[in-house]
């Protein structure tokens, strides 16, 4: 399983667990039905029963003023709850750290 698929499988697993915890939640059921109807990838993952876990990953985003930023992403879960926190960090001294420092200056000028 690729990292991208593993990441997606982890979010599908979160939804599957939530639907098991809240079987009478009509809004949650409607969300899952809509995702299955609109996304072939989601429908395939949901139908497969695959279970994924959140693992650290790297994301690249493009900022309009300072260009590409490569960020480390960790997803923290509060056990026994539905709470997930995405924490983005960068290595000190790297190109992304320098660009983020530039954003501090650019942001003030807007």
Any overview of this molecule?
It holds the Pfam family MLTR_LBD. This is MmyB-like transcription regulator ligand binding domain-containing protein. Residues 7-103 form the MmyB-like transcription regulator ligand binding domain. It comes from Sphaerisporangium dianthi. With 110 residues, the protein is an alpha+beta fold. It folds into 2 domains: 1-53, no CATH class; 56-110, no CATH class. It is 51% helix and 22% strand. A 3-stranded antiparallel β-sheet has the order 1-2-3. It is elongated and about 50 Å long.
Summarize the structure.
This is MmyB-like transcription regulator ligand binding domain-containing protein. The chain has four helices and three strands. The protein is of the alpha+beta class and 110 residues long.
Shape: elongated
Structural class: alpha+beta
How large is the count of helical segments?
4
Give me the side-by-side strand order of the main sheet: 1-2-3
Number of domains: 2
Gyration radius, in Å: 18 Å
Fraction of residues in helices?
40-55%
Let me know the largest β-sheet: 3 strands, antiparallel
Q: How many β strands by DSSP?
A: 3
Mean of the pLDDT scores? 86
**What proportion strand?**
15-25%
The helix/strand series, from N terminus to C terminus, equals HHHEEEH
Measured distance between first and last alpha carbons: 43 Å
Low-pLDDT windows of residues:
none
């Amino acid at each position: 399983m690729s990292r991208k698929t593993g990441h997606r499988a982890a979010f599908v697993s979160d939804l599957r667990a939530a639907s098991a915890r809240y079987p009478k939640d009509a809004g949650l059921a409607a969300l899952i039905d809509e995702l299955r109807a609109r996304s072939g990838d989601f429908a395939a993952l949901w139908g497969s029963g695959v279970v994924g876990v959140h693992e650290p990953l790297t994301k690249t985003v493009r900022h309009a003023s300072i260009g590409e930023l490569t960020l480390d992403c960790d997803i923290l879960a509060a056990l026994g709850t539905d709470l997930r926190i995405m924490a983005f960090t960068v290595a000190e001294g790297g190109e992304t750290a320098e660009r983020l420092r530039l954003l501090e200056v650019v942001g003030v000028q807007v």
